[in-house]
Amino acid sequence: MSSYRIQGATGEWEVVIGLEVHAQIVSKAKLFSGASAEFGAEPNQNVSLVDAAMPGMLPVPNVECIRQAVKTGMALNAEINRWSRFDRKNYFYADLPQGYQISQLYHPLVGEGAITIDADERSGISEPKTIGIERLHVEQDAGKLMHDQHPTRSYVDLNRSGVALMEIVSRPDMRSPAEAGAYLRKLRSILRYVGSCDGNMEEGSMRADVNVSVRRPGMPFGTRTETKNVNSIRFVMAAIEGEANRQVDVLESGGTIVQETRLYDPDRNETRSMRSKEDAHDYRYFPDPDLLPLELSEDFVAACAAELPELPDAKRARYEGPLGVPAYNAAVITADVETARWFEALLEASGKTSPETAKAASNWLISDLFGALNRLGKDIADSPVSPGQGAELLALVADGTLSGTLAKQVFEIMIETGEDPGKIVEERGLKQTSDTGAIEAVIAEVMAANADKVADYRSGKDKLFGFFVGQTMKAMGGKANPGVVNELLKKALA
Amino acid sequence: MSITDLGIAAIRDGFRNGDFSAAEVADAFNAAVSSARALNAFIIETPDHARFAAEAADKARSAGSLLPLSGVPLGIKDLFCTAGYQTTAASGMLSGFVPTYESTVTARLFGAGAGMLGKLNLDQFAMGSSNETSAFGNVVSPWRRNDGGNAPLAPGGSSGGSSSAIAARIVPAATGTDTGGSIRQPAAFTGIAGIKPTYGRCSRFGIVAFASSLDQAGAMAQDVRDCAILLEAMAGFDPKDSTSLDIAVPAWERELSADLRGKKVGIPKEYRVDGMPEAVDALWSQGIQWLRDAGAEIVDVSLPHTRFALPTYYIIAPAEASSNLARYDGVRYGLRELPEGANLQDMYAATRAAGFGSEVRRRILIGTYVLSAGFYDAYYTKAQKVRALIARDFEQVFQDVDVLLTPTAPSAAFALGEKSADPLEMYLNDVFTVPASLAGLPAMSVPAGLDPQGLPLGLQIIGRPLDEQGVLDVGLAIEQRADFNARPQNWWVK
């Protein structure tokens, strides 16, 4: 149970949240035409006769888009409907060439499913929580109007017109902005694992309509508003908070909430009314007579299931269990499919892994590698260090060639130059030494130079041991094996 | 006998035999077309296309590489998009619209060696039964009543340009489209043969859509054999139309047989309606006798939901049309009306008010109404249920009989202007043709006799799904016995 409450003037309010996420399907071609679905082309370059709704043009479903949606449905533990149908949603707008959007209202491709969001004490999510998925359906995206190209006219770019979207509708199961954020992060993670959506909210390939209502804890649902097209997780959380507080203010000052569509303004961090239910469109949905019902064969469904990769929850359980990765590390690494892939390549390059090596590798990845990538502002996919190089570095630490300190030095050089750690160690002489003769000679020098401290130590100031270690390591340029230094120092100071 | 008296088979065979060249055929028909403008059968004439195809046919004949329709020129209903040639659907909305693409049906015909004499006039967007809704003026039937009154008569609709041109022998044959009777009724009115195949036989790709679940291209010609030849060249699976049937096209012409021994012909009692002229009833009885003579067994059958077909059709067809015609919005092609200071909504309103004729507007309004919230179930959902019952009626009788014989239309051709003031009376013209359309069945009209005023009457044959052969065979048996050789007086040549 979420303990998130809005403290109103008249008492506590609970927030109820449902999300409708539009996720652009990763595919070469659009949902019903052969035109390219790639992002970033010059305006109107990726437009077929079908997308422009020329007279006599007909839609033909792209099986790849259907496959992606089915796999996504499976990843959401959802029911895959063997029989679904496309409907037309009719309305006029200049970015909608057909005058209708082909969508699925009455018989969606995917039915009931669920997503589990993880516990996150810092965000007030005390335990894992299941968020219901009501449905997933496939539909066409619209084009885009450009109002800044001409003083009095608007231009239309149809590149996006007809691109395949999945609309993923949650149950009103979330009770705080943090839960909504966690749901979106988890959903995005799953979509990226499946490879059905790149989850890139800045480019608009994933956007959310946010349904919010408030109620007294334990009371029936209140009237909801829908805030359209919010395009970042941060904005979704801010929009919920702002909208919920607005509703509480309205209710506490004796008003009522109007069921309406609202827009979120990130600059002012507030939602504002777009249109109320009274002037809502009548979309005149009806089955698209240009398309036959979509019937999935058992073979097709089985093939989709076979293509499904290991998903974040399963991967995390495997990491924590047989692999021996600490729970926190497992959660961080499995949250993002690219990170998990990198980690698994790292383990594979390391050869046979024990729980110790898996733990060491996970620690190194989320501290050293993440730290460096953060500094460089790079994604793990663009890491200057390859998994093979990382494995080599970890092996050099494991076999005693490098101390932790030396390993950090070598890693910095790897980041800068992209060179292999073995080569760096060899060429720059960064190898750790366990040569007892050399170490003993340095210890003798250090003790001679600090005779007073030797006396102090021998008279009981044990804490000075660290001083001698430091001086010895310093004199050896950090390359002495710390274990050997410890051992020899103890003997010499005894 | 002149070349322009010949139909497809006679031209094809005469050309192969070397009786005449394809160029002679094209020139003769091009001349006939340009001398018959009083009929207003064409929206544009395309003599260059016919001549070019003829020259190619003559070369092919020399090279010994003849195609099925080499040397045959055709009229093309102006609902088929033709690359490089204006395509209007007889609407001001598309005046001047020149597609860059070819409909699948015309591509097949031209690929089979046929040439195009011109784009034939029709009811606007194929909505009408008299050709009076064309934005390019109505087509006139070549037929006149023998009462000396000389009232110009309707050629039927919507394929009225096709029917009139064939009856006047200015084209040997033509394409038509049939949504609720648009091939069969004009064929009956003008004393020619016309077949609408099973829904899905011909691709709808590139045909300006009226009602997607009903629209079907078909053949119109002087006789049954020519219909078989033409339909064979038009039909076939097309991956660009999701509703197209992936089934091989039979050799209908080769398999034609007027021997009906062992066949059962059903006579549906519901097609005997009040107020039907005596001549229509008598011809029906005569037709029954002819089929008995051809060896068929006659069976009285019942299609109990027939009386609901017309209202059902006039809900479903306008519903689909209201959505299909939303793309004509003035944004991308065709007419744009942009009054001074107009915003987007104003542009839509002005463009659609100016571009659509009154019958098209009426059907868009009916369709919008029946799909709107609160009325959808009462009209559209109910109509779909009744449609299923009508289809089931046919399924049941086709367990007992092979084909059905009915009149094509409840009367002979009416005078232009006679019914245009009363849309309901106009819609009643389709009473016998819409049931087969709703059930997606193959159906044809063959000329069978004249009424007391000397006007042609047709008989309709309805067959099982995919049994075009059965329909054509019964048509042939009637044709042979009816020996219909009446021709209109040649008043139109200038």
Instruction: State the share of residues found in helices of chain A, binned by percent.
Output: 25-40%
Number of strands of chain A: 16
CATH architectural grouping of the domain at 3-257 and 474-482 in chain B: Alpha-Beta Complex
End-to-end distance of chain B, in Å? 20 Å
Contiguous uncertain segments of 5+ residues of chain A: none
Highest CATH level, the class of the domain at 3-257 and 474-482 in chain B = Alpha Beta
CATH superfamily of the domain at 3-257 and 474-482 in chain B: Amidase signature (AS) domain
Distance between the termini of chain A: 61 Å
Helix/strand order of chain B: HHEHEHEHEHEEHHEHEHHHHEHHEEH
The strand order across the widest sheet of chain B is: 4-6-5-10-11-9-7-8
Which outline of chain A best applies?
A: elongated
Please describe the biggest sheet of chain A, giving its number of strands, its sense, and whether it closes into a barrel.
Answer: 9 strands, mixed
Low-confidence region ranges of chain B: none
Largest sheet of chain B: 8 strands, mixed
Structural class by secondary-structure content of chain B: alpha/beta
What is the CATH third-level topology name of the domain at 3-257 and 474-482 in chain B?
Amidase signature (AS) enzymes
Going by helix content, strand content and strand pairing, the class of chain A is: alpha+beta
Strand content of chain A: 15-25%
Mean pLDDT over the residues of chain A: 93
> Which percent range describes the beta-strand content of chain B?
5-15%
Kindly give the count of domains of chain A: 3
